[in-house]
Amino acid sequence: MSKITLAAATLALAVTFAPQAMAQDAAAGEKAFRACAACHTVEAGKNKAGPHLAGVVGRKAAAVEGFSYSKALQESGLTWDEATLDKWLADPKGTVPGNKMVYAGQKNEQTRKDLIAYLASK
């Protein structure tokens, strides 16, 4: 098999199975979100101890109306893109010192990626 044929076959497989891989990540993220569900929901407009996370990817930090955010998060200037969410999920207190979230952080990188994939689907 030539290098060009092999590259084309590899690309075809990647395109064919990419949606399934994303679904697996989001499914794993949904399971991981169970730990977050004590304080958060993905139902728009429904806040718990933490703000709802529906539509969080791409949203400005401290932007959910009706939720009382810490001054630190209000003044952070963050937008919740994938890189910022990854950093936040790994170390909320280190990312925005003085925030009110009582979560120590998720050290497992794959779990963070899965959570972000799940949140991006909401």
Mean pLDDT across every amino acid position? 86
**Spatial separation of the terminal alpha carbons:** 43 Å
Note the total helix count.
5
Which regions have little confidence, pLDDT < 50, spanning 5+ residues? 3-23
Shape: globular
Largest sheet: none
Structural class: mainly alpha
Strand content: under 5%
Rounded Rg: 17 Å
Assembly state here? single chain
Q: What is the tally of beta strands?
A: 0
State the helicity in percent bands.
40-55%
The sequence of SSEs as H and E is HHHHH
Topology readout:
Elements: H1 3-33, H2 71-74, H3 82-90, H4 92-95, H5 109-120
Helix pairs in contact: 1-5, 3-5
What descriptive keywords fit this protein?
122 residues, disordered N terminus, 49% helix, 0% strand, mainly alpha, single chain
Summarize the structure.
The chain is mainly alpha-helical and 122 residues long. It has helices at 3-33, 71-74, 82-90, 92-95, 109-120.
Please tell me about this protein's structure.
The longest helix has 31 residues, at 3-33. The protein is globular, with a radius of gyration of 17 Å. It is built from five helices and no strands. The N and C termini lie far apart (43 Å). It has helices at residues 3-33, 71-74, 82-90, 92-95, 109-120. Helix 1 packs across helix 5 (109-120) and helix 3 packs across helix 5. It has 122 residues and is mainly α. The model is unreliable at 3-23 (pLDDT under 50).
